[in-house]
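Tutorial, part two.
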Amino acid sequence: MTFSQRSRIPAGILAFAATMLFFTALTFVLVGCGGTSATTSITASSATTTTSGSGSTTTSSVGGGGNNVQVAMVNRSYDPATVTIRVGDTVTWANQSSIQHDVVADNGEFKSKLFGQGETFSFTFAKAGTFPYHCSIHPGMTGTVIVQ
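Running the prediction step on this input gives:
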């Protein structure tokens, strides 16, 4: 028996290893593109803050009219995905991701340019309503501003 004959790996094991490598790589890609499924919201109404554990809802209340609420853009998600504010409040989206994003209202009410890490976009809401929005280059990246 020669050295090359002794060191050969059976074809079945090679196929299994290649399949496992493929699915591991696919998992990393999907996790990196998926964002989070947790729902977080900020409510601007009175002077209270409530925070729950990971994957749950966060509510932060800061008074009405003229307040600024922050939404972080992390990977491919808005955090929090839903904010509830009052007429006259401003929402500022801050890109904390290494990739560019934008903020586009589904109804055309507001639209930012693409912006990178460390940059922000702000919009002041002058009327009550529900304003779903998205990132134009990441279709699964969505959020909602509820203005009371």
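The longest helix spans residues 11-34. In part three we will examine how such features are distributed along the chain.
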